[in-house]
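Render this sequence as a predicted structure.
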Amino acid sequence: MPRKVLTLIFLIAALPAMVLAQIRTDHALAMGRNALYYEDYMLSIQYFNRVIEARPYLAQPYFFRGLAKFRLEDYSGTVEDCSEAIRRNPYFSDSYRLRAIGWIELARYDSAVADYRHLLSLNPYEAVPLYNISLCYIRLKDYAEAWKSLEALDRHTTTEKEKIWLMKAGVALEEGDTLRAAECVDRSLAYDSLRADAWSLKASLSMHDEAWEKAEGEWTKAIRCDDRNADFYVNRALARYYLWRYDDALADYDEAIRINSRHVVAHYNRGLLRMNVGDNNRAIEDFDFILSLQPDNETALVNRGILRLKTGDARGAIEDFTGILKRHPNFLAGYYYRAEAYREAGMASAAARDEAKLMKADLDMRYGGNSWRTGGKPQPARKLSDVDIENYSQIVENESERDEPRYESEFRGRVQNRAVEAVPCQPYRLTFYHKANDLRRSAPYYRPLEALNGRKVFTAPLYLGCSDVPLTSDQARERLVSIDSLSSRIGKVLQLQEKSAAASSGKSLDFPRELPALLFTARSIDYALTHDLDAALADAGQAVASDTASLWAYFQRATVRLKICLLQADRRAALSSAGRQDGAERELQLPEVSLSDAYADLQTVCRKAPDFAYAYYNAGIALTAMKRTKEALAAYDEAIRLEPALAEAYFNRALLLMEGASSEADRTRAFADLSRAGELGIPQAYSLIKMFSK
């Protein structure tokens, strides 16, 4: 037979296998991108590894694996994978974008500049590369190029002008041009007068010029824009200290500590000011707190020693000054105060030894210059990094860094994430993994589920859970292996079922009638855990068709349908509110189902198991999404009646009550539900109580 004919026959025979391999790799790539969307990065990497093994010449799996590594903060891996993607397809610009951000995270700014220059060669006026290359030039201290890039960005964009001018102010400051920096800050505020970071920078410039009253007013404006920033209060307190307004400064330190109880500068300066106004016992509390955090803080130890001496704790003062003098044997003020402490404690000979060391020194000049305590002009503040023991009496200047500009990225985080915490809890579903936490350690108990687990049908026990826990790499492999194993078992059982049916319709089968449904249900759970929702839905449908009496088949299909519907809603919200999406988010693949389908399945579950609280809870979620508020509230009521400790039902019912609150009674009931939810282990309920109270 001619060689050409043999070759043609071989290719025809191999064609189905080639097509199948193509379908499998395309499916794995799609599932990996879905896993990216769900933030299940370890699982997505497993999928992309499979595609790379099968088709190593493709650029896409390398890029998306690099994106998964970026989300896991493996920036070296991100750069490596993006470089591989670029080798295979140098025309895919997103690979350059992602690699540039990886270079920035690795502080390789020159390499990031090269990637951004490539992007700007394609589109010289694209905003994100212009912004980020400016940031890179600033980090490289190439201020002339940074200024050029910011000027180009300013000319060719109409949005976020305030951010551009604030970056220009940063460049001017780096060059030491405070006058131009102030002008740039004013331009930024002209675009947006509510930028806390702009007012903060303006106040810092006023502090630099020792314009204390002006600085105080500017810190006040920064606080109005962001009243949760403890540093703003600490900095305003310093301006008030220079203005001799100690009571106001103390009030600012109190507020800073209320916001951040571990703020060392606030505690230190409050301790000094309390000492100055004679509030010695509470001043000791501040220095005690600092020393509990920083046992080697020597200036705090000196001040606590002085305060212990003043409050009659001579032995405590001796202990503090002895510790200091071991490390600083030439610290004359330490000998002076310890000598006083020795005399207070009746240890005259020890006091005489310390006094002998002081006889050759001019004591007034060496330790008595605490002019701000004795009514003189306040001394300049020392830097927090200044650990000179002689400066123990000086107030500390907060050295919190000016807000560094952060690179812009369409790859950082999920665009559809909601900033507000008032988000309902997720539906309960079947899973092989129980997520315990410190507040809620045990998995929900339901007797029929325990009975099912007792039959040992599955390789692992089933749980009820409502937290989307990303799988670890080992867990992802477990589930993929389980899918293959279940597929084999399902094939064998179906073959046996066909043979038994063909042999005799009256003969009893040698396996339980409901086994196929349980195996389809188990594989559906595996597919859902690995984010293959098409396959999960298909298997759940097969489970229902195999055994219409199966409670778990209907429950699994209901939860898969409900998950798909909620994701569709999130996706629509994201597309309506966001601009550019990254590739993983643009092409999320979801089967088409409706909320009414999910709710119909849940109604069937409730009829089959009227004591199953979690089905009523899920029905409440479905009805909420369908805008059937009264019915949703009734479903949550029934879930709570059946399971009084179902925290998520209280939480979701509270949100529903608060959303449609038409009376004070509704609000009161919502607060009671949030309180109960927090009590049962949902900590965000307490933050919502505070938020709604405002």
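Summary. The two ends are 87 Å apart (CA to CA). DSSP finds 33 helices and four strands in the chain.
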